[in-house]
Design brief:
Distance between the termini: 52 Å
Low-confidence stretches: 1-5, 26-59, 74-84
Radius of gyration: 28 Å
Structural class: alpha/beta
Number of helices: 22
Strand content: 5-15%
Strand order of the largest sheet: 1-2-11-3-10-9-4-8-6-7-5
């Protein structure tokens, strides 16, 4: 074999990793055999190993993957009706060392996207199941029973559920039947009312996964210890872990989101049975300072839209990462990445950490990926999300003191991505999210997408609304076609009308389109305009709003990101041009209501135009409804 031509194959990389690990092992042995230190040698003071002083990138310390002093959450296994080593359990069938889900046929089917889709009703959820063509098990048989969750977690959870509404209990049970079957889940229809209960049930599922994984490790530790004590050959079926310890990654947009997820996690580990270590430090870094006043929280109800309050209340810093280690009696926050079980992080925080350390090995063994508030992440920088996903479930560059005799075979074969469960949560769907779900997820167990019948959004009555389509045969040409239609057909007609060429807001969903249109307007000396973007300072915002309201500027260009982050009410509007349908449907109704902030404005004084193509289906559906969008797209598809 010519190694020069195969240096990037999983086998070659794994052999290199084993050789490096063996060299380090021999070096440690020589160090242990060195002469004992002199008794009169000056001693140095060492800090306790459990103390972690910095939550930043420097927390990427090596730690063995099966610490002997670890005890897993959930306590003793007596009277527990779920055994993580039972080969018939959903956990073992999916994540066991001898799972059938990573066969060559299964992997080939996923790689070639040979999926069979069917619509299924799961309780109150409308879903689309996508299973491999050769998978003959009906979707209804895929779902897990309630007993899939360990009794010690399930009992308290059911007690808390009894205090919830029947609708919330139903949603949680429906989702838990999907999650416990280790299917990928994409829910782009998550309402504000259900967000907390869904977060709680996903946190329960993650905690249950870690419990079963660590119990198996501890049981095998005991078996190996007993074999050593009895001077017999050690058991060979002890493959129970990955290259590194972290197995759950939760990607979030803000520190306040991480605080909410910690609250969800700790509802399943209540005090005094469990101690939360470094909790005060976590609150100081992830909540607002005690003397800070959150204007979104203290404002009168109705001052700010509810979705804006829920998204931006609290600490909205978007650069963070924290490791969480779970033991039988404690939840240890700020654990180093190679010694933790769960990572809460923003895509930006993880990317900066990976680039600084030049290593993403701590993501090599992630078995559950959760991405929450995907709409907010899309408003930040979607490239950071893609970067993190591209660095997941790869063979590590270093061994990190891993015991290769304990690593599951499908990790060594480089197939862990085919077993990783991904959970995507968003209030609505975008083409980027659907592409991520369709093209990047490889879970051979299958995947489930939740569907929603969208009603038409409520807008002020009698407003003259026009939905104007343009032809486009290729999505790559869509930005160019849209720009050409606007500048050569729509804008010239607007400028010919004295009424439409004044008091006009142009709402632009895409940041790239906003920059392009802004540059175009700057080159047109005859156009009087001002802009509001996410980069506008408070002074620029105040000046733009005043000049537009007073009529000194005829046009106001507004980016969707500006409205997402600021949510200002804009006065002086009589004409609205939507360069494309907004991603957030509530923005459409909000802008149509703004003209009526001024006294004496009638519905007949307001005009709205929406430019769209067939590639705007998701956004249009949220505005005109699932039934109404069919009429708009007729003839374009």
């Amino acid at each position: 074999m010519d190694l020069g031509e195969n240096v990037n194959t999983p086998t070659t990389r794994l052999l290199t990793l084993l050789n490096v690990s063996a060299l380090k092992s021999r070096k440690r042995t020589r160090d242990e055999d060195s002469p004992a230190p002199k008794l009169n040698k000056r001693k140095t003071v060492k800090l306790a190993e459990d103390i972690t002083l910095d939550p930043g990138p420097s927390i990427l310390h090596d730690r063995t993957n099966n610490d002997a002093d670890d005890e897993v959450i959930g306590g003793d296994e007596e009277n527990d009706d779920v055994d993580s080593q039972d080969i018939t359990s959903p956990y073992e069938q999916h994540y066991g060392p001898n799972t059938d889900l990573v066969s060559e046929a299964s992997r080939s089917s996923v790689d070639q996207r040979r999926w069979t889709s069917s619509r299924e009703k799961i309780g109150t959820l409308r879903t689309v199941f996508s299973l491999r063509n050769e998978d003959t098990i009906p979707p209804s048989k895929k779902l897990a029973k309630q007993t899939a969750i360990t009794q010690r977690l399930r009992g308290p959870f059911r007690a808390r559920q009894s205090r919830q509404s029947s609708d919330q209990r139903q949603v949680q049970d429906d989702l838990l039947s999907i999650l416990s079957a280790h299917l990928d889940l994409y829910n782009p229809a998550l309402s504000l009312e259900d967000h907390r209960s869904v977060r709680d049930v996903v946190a329960l599922h993650a905690l249950d996964h870690i419990t079963k994984k660590r119990r198996r490790v501890l049981k095998n530790n005991e078996r190996l210890a007993h074999a050593k004590t009895a001077s017999v050959s050690p058991p060979e079926d002890v493959q129970d872990q990955g290259f590194t310890r972290p197995s759950v990654l939760v990607l979030l947009p803000f520190r306040s989101s991480a605080l909410a997820w910690l609250d969800a996690l700790t509802t399943h580990t209540p005090s005094p049975a469990y101690q939360i270590e470094n909790h005060s430090r976590f609150l100081s870094e992830y909540a607002l300072p005690p003397d800070a006043i959150d204007k979104l929280v203290v404002a009168e109800p109705g001052t700010y839209p509810r979705d804006h309050v829920e998204t931006f209340k609290g600490n909205v810093d978007d650069n963070f990462r924290v490791g969480i280690k779970l033991t039988r009696k404690s939840v240890k926050l700020f654990a180093d990445f190679y010694g933790c079980d769960i990572i809460f992080a923003s895509p930006l925080g993880l990317r900066m950490s990976i680039e600084k350390e030049k290593s993403a090995d701590f993501l090599s063994s992630i078995e559950i990926l959760v991405i929450d508030q995907m709409n907010a992440l899309a408003m930040q920088n979607w490239e950071h999300v893609q970067y993190v996903l591209s660095n997941m479930n790869n063979l590590p560059k270093d061994s990190h003191d891993a015991d290769f005799s304990r690593i599951k075979p499908w990790y060594l074969d480089g197939h862990s991505a085919y077993l990783r469960q991904s959970i995507f949560l968003s209030p609505f769907e975008t083409p980027e999210l659907r592409a991520l779900f369709n093209n990047t997820l490889k879970n051979t167990a299958g995947k489930v997408r939740v569907e929603k019948m969208w009603p038409a959004i409520q807008v002020p009555e009698s407003i003259d609304q026009m939905f104007i389509s343009f032809d486009c045969a290729n999505p790559k040409d869509e930005p160019e076609k849209r720009f050409a239609y606007f500048t050569t057909q729509l804008l010239p007609r607007v400028l010919k009308s004295a009424v439409q060429s004044a008091n006009t807001v142009i709402f632009i969903p895409s940041s790239f389109d906003f920059i392009r249109l802004h540059n175009y307007f700057r080159k047109q000396s005859s156009l009087s305009f001002t802009v509001l973007s996410e980069y506008s300072t408070n002074q620029e915002i105040s000046r733009a709003r005043e000049t537009f309201f007073s009529g000194k500027k005829a046009f106001l260009l507004v980016s969707e990101r500006f409205h997402f982050y600021r949510r200002y009410k804009i006065r002086g509007i009589r004409n609205l041009i939507f360069y494309g349908p907004p991603e957030h449907p509530q923005f459409f109704s909000e802008f149509l209501s703004f003209p009526f902030l001024d006294d004496g404005v009638e519905a007949s004084d307001v005009m709205s135009k929406v430019i769209y193509s067939k590639y705007d289906k998701f956004r249009l559906e949220r505005i005109v409804g699932t039934k109404g969008v069919k009429g708009l797209l007729e003839g374009l598809l």
